[in-house]
Write a structure and sequence with these properties.
Blueprint (H helix, E strand, L loop, with lengths): L8 H65 L2 E2 L4 H4 L6 E7 L5 E2 L7 E10 L2 E10 L4 E11 L7
Antiparallel strand pairs: 1-2, 2-3, 2-4, 4-5, 5-6
Length: 156
């Protein structure tokens, strides 16, 4: 009669492996949730900054037009053509670049955000179409339109 001397070590080892596997699965799920939350937080921060900068750009444009924007934000002529943007006949197009802290920078290579402004005038109403883009992935974060009436005698 051969009796096996079983101490239950095999069963205990299987239970431990199942517990470790369950722990690893939970840890991986939590890690993925934290990574996704960080991505959403960064997108929200960048979008909020884009909205604030676009509103600031629009207010400066309303106050003094293209000349004041070019002076105040160190803007440069936009490289995009009207066909690429969907605007039929923009009269002026320029781009403004900002770093991570929201300070205007002169070069695209140093920028975290860019704002592109297309200006049109029709029947005494001057309109600026402002689009804010995150530079690292070319994601459009915010778009808006600002308009102002020109004094009589200006515009087309």
């Amino acid at each position: 009669m051969n009796k096996k001397n079983s101490t239950g070590a095999g069963l205990f080892m299987m239970e431990m492996l199942a517990a470790v596997f369950f722990f690893i699965l939970c840890a991986a799920t939590c890690l993925m949730a934290f990574v996704k939350a960080d991505q959403v937080s960064r997108l929200a921060r960048d979008t909020n900054q884009a909205v604030v900068l676009a509103e600031s750009l629009a207010e400066v444009w309303k106050q003094g037009g293209a000349e004041l924007v070019e002076e105040g934000f160190s803007s440069q002529e936009a490289a995009e053509s009207a066909a690429e943007t969907g605007f039929s006949h923009p009269e002026a197009a320029w781009a403004v670049f900002w770093d991570d802290q929201g300070e205007p920078v002169g070069e695209e290579s140093q920028a975290a955000l860019s704002g592109t402004v297309f200006q049109e005038t029709e029947d005494g109403l001057e309109t600026a179409h402002i689009t804010m883009v995150r530079q690292k992935d070319d994601k459009t974060l915010f778009s808006m339109t600002a308009a102002r009436y020109l004094p009589s005698g200006q515009g087309s």
